[in-house]
Amino acid sequence: SAIAKVRALPEVIDYLKRVPNGQVLVNGEEDNSYSVQVYEFKDGHTATFNWYTVDKTTGEIKKEF
User: Which residue, 27, 29, 30, is CA-closest to 38?
Assistant: First the structure.
């Protein structure tokens, strides 16, 4: 559900339209939140679009940058 919430963000929808190989993946977990990375693997490295923290209880999303 954390992935679905991040995928529904307007900027992520736009990114995935522009970058068909883009990925949305839970890449970490703390006591009350998930870390979700939006990225693509390109030219032998990971190019991160953004990181999002999703609160497990409230579903609130905070973007890292």
Answer: 27
User: What pTM did the predictor assign?
Assistant: 0.91
Check: CB of residue 29 under 8 Å from CB of residue 14.
Answer: no
| Contacts by residues 29-38 (CB-CB < 8 Å, ≥ 24 positions apart) | 32/56, 32/57, 34/2, 36/2, 36/3, 36/6, 38/6, 38/12
DSSP state of 31: S
- Do 35 and 48 meet the contact criterion of CB atoms below 8 Å apart? no
Lookup: tokens for 34: 């998930």
Question: pLDDT digit string (tens) for 4-25?
Answer: 999 999 999 999 999 999 999 9
